[in-house]
Amino acid sequence: METGIGGLGAYLSAVLSIVIIDLALSGDNAAVIALAIRELPLHQRKKAAILGAGGAILLRVIFTIIATFLLMIPYLRAIGGVILLAITWKLIKQDEETGEEKISASTRFWRAVGTIIIADLSMAFDNVLAVAGAAHGHPGLVIFGLALSIPILVADSNWLASLMNRYPIIIYIAAAVLARTALEMIVHDNGLALVHYLGALVGILIPFIAGGIVILWGILEIKRRQRREGGVKESTRGIR
């Protein structure tokens, strides 16, 4: 980067761009963290979010350095999308588990941390490329941009996790965001070239339709659960 007033202006412009990028792209990542930590005790949530996001950010720095090379590998975005779909399915099914499955607090904690790292990395391409582009190849700015993601993600994810416990539909809205992101990664993969075959409009619609299906399924699942719980209460009342 240039020195002097012009260089300072370019530097500050790059910093501002990175902050805006982090704020704009943190939604999907905050959603996956919130889904992963919502089952943890309150005192463990922030710790799991920091460890998971921190581990993912550390690996993102490495990814950013080799981002150009990674994008040349066919099917890599599609593979990341499939992984994210699998993780999304696992996270929303976790909400429907019964209390019969005995998982230790320690196991649940580290499972949440691992899920955050894997899911975050699977959809990190857009964030990594955007930050790398805004930093204009300046390694210090790259590290600053990725490090800035941590407090944003931790704050957003803790807030989302609290809302999920109060309003179950938010779990499925977050899952819909992740499903849309995963389908976008698959549809826009250079190796598959699905946009070329399906057309740009269809390529845009498919991810949003997938997200809508997840939300619809969530509404039906919540209603089914409410009916089941209502039936249990009625049967208990009848026994009395």
Quick take:
With 240 residues, this protein is mostly helical. It has one domain. It has helices spanning 4-37, 42-65, 67-71, 76-94, 105-122, 125-135, 139-166, 169-187, 194-198, 200-239.
Question: What's the arrangement of secondary structure elements?
Answer:
Layout lengths: L3 H34 L4 H24 L1 H5 L4 H19 L10 H18 L2 H11 L3 H28 L2 H19 L6 H5 L1 H40 L1
Helix pairs in contact: 1-5, 1-6, 1-7, 1-8, 2-5, 2-6, 2-7, 4-5, 4-8, 6-7, 8-10
Describe this structure in words.
Helices cover 85% and strands 0% of the residues. With 240 residues, it is an all-alpha fold. It has one domain (4-239). The chain is globular, with a radius of gyration of 20 Å.
The class by helix and strand makeup works out as mainly alpha
Percent of residues in beta strands: under 5%
Order of helices and strands: HHHHHHHHHH
Fraction in helix: over 70%
Termini, distance in Å? 77 Å
Low-confidence stretches: 98-103
From the alpha-carbon coordinates, what is the Rg to the nearest angstrom? 20 Å
How many domains in all? Answer: 1
- Mean pLDDT across the residues is 74
Number of helices: 10
Number of beta strands: 0
How would you characterize the largest beta sheet?
A: none
Shape: globular
